[in-house]
Amino acid sequence: MTNVLIEAPSALQTETPINAHLSERRRRLIIALVLVPVFVGSIDLTIASAILPEVLIKLNIPIDTNLGTAAWVVTGYLLAYTISMALMGRFSDMVGRRGAFLACLGLFIIGSWWVATAHLFPTALLNDVARRYLGLRPDLNQLTLLAVVIGRVIQALGAGAVVPVSLALVADLYPPERRAAAVGSIGAMDTLGWVLGHLYGGVMVGFFQQHGEAIRLWLAGLGLALPAPDWRTLFWINVPLGAFAFVLMLFALRGVQHPISPGRLDLIGALLIAAALTCLVLGLGGNTDVTGATSLRALEAQASQSPYNLPLLAAAAALFGVFLLWEWRQAHPILELHLFRQRAVSAATLTNLLIGFLLMLGLVSVPLLINLRAENASAEAIARAAERAGLLLSTLTIPMALAAVPGAWLSGRIGFRGTTLSGIALAIVGFALAGGTWRADTSELVMSAQLTLIGIGLGLTIAPIGTVVINAVGAARRGVASALVLIMRYLGMTIAIPSMTTYAFSRLNYLVSLARESFAPDWTAEQIQRESVRAYFDSGVTVIAEMLLIGALIGVLALLPALWLRTAQPKATYAESGARDAQLER
Prior knowledge:
Elements: H1 4-7, H2 10-13, H3 24-58, H4 63-95, H5 97-116, H6 121-133, H7 140-173, H8 180-221, H9 231-252, H10 267-283, H11 296-302, H12 309-328, H13 343-372, H14 379-437, H15 444-470, H16 478-516, H17 525-562, H18 572-585
């Protein structure tokens, strides 16, 4: 077997990490502490969709007339999360990981407190501004909803930045040949939290509704006059948890050296990428939580068929084009585009794009089939189906997170390319088996076995792909490289939503219309209704199976760039960059 150290260029073999003086125990403690805010921040990315109905009910806000504003509780977080992820990698290169990480964590804590107390100080503040400076007399419940949106944006600005900064931070702790495990753990925890957010929010809100009053009475017996827990409690939990992590990281990062990159923040590039990502997120519907879709039609509606979608996507493409032209000429860009000159980096990022697509495809297919098989369309039946879908999805996401560790180990034995190819091959087999066997009566045990295979396969790719890109740059540019890794996988996930939705909905309509052509002309209205429901059900199952087979084909496509994966070998310009980085470290 080829060892990854043999593949590595001499520059990487002889690199001495700037934190070689730290003990192994200290490094592991830092990584363990880093994983906490990464997980909590990613959970909050999707938690809002589960608690939004209760938020509106508690505020006595009509859903039908305020759905647009309420949707920004989800969209605002996603948008700020994405922009922060793209920008803060470069910021951490400029100010150092310790300061950037603590600043991001502080923002997340402040945002969580703001949301938890939105009905108190934030609402009073907004009311004072509206009355004193704008001459308005707004509805206080509406202001509270606006305060929740603002708090979510503040949260996301911290949570989104934590991920790339954490990747760069753990890369600072280890030499290239030992980074894969740390990088894999960060990527796995981010994905796991993102997927579990909706389930966690739904379970906790239901628990508080059933036992909230009993909890309040129990606390009162202890002398604590606190209100019954509700959706705000989920954000209150973040405050002490985040504060505890902040204090621990403040001490844990003492003595940890942080490379500083020269130059200033590229403000024009920052504005361009922020505008491009804004148009992209809004154009795609502003919601990544498609795992709660109850049907193919609900998924199509969730993708948002606004007349502004196409103009927004066109604007996003134009802005991305201008951003690329601008960044290519910058000495200290927001995203290191010159990295794409290296074959290994181009291969890694393209592979990561397709991995993101596959992940989203798996996440969407499970709840669609489970909800389609629900005994009826009642709220109770849909709720039970959602619980089963959440449990079934855990057989995909938990193995994916766990597989990041053996993925790092394999990277040191068979190399980055061999590990990535093995993972993709397992995922292809899983998608092909699922596409060939998922039917109306397929047991959930069989489905979970196939999902586990897909999860293990995708999980094996996390560490090698991320490590290839991060190893391609000097110490003072790892934040930028980390942002590039995350953005490419996120783009793959977001592209999967509208493309698969468009395919599924058009294919469903075609199959249903084809079935209706065989209806006898003398059928009664009752027969037509019954057979139409059956046609929709059968067609839906067929479409979901086809989507899984498409996943197998996308996996085969992902094998092509993965074949070019090797440890990144810097071009001349990056050799010079590495020398400058080393000089800065000294």
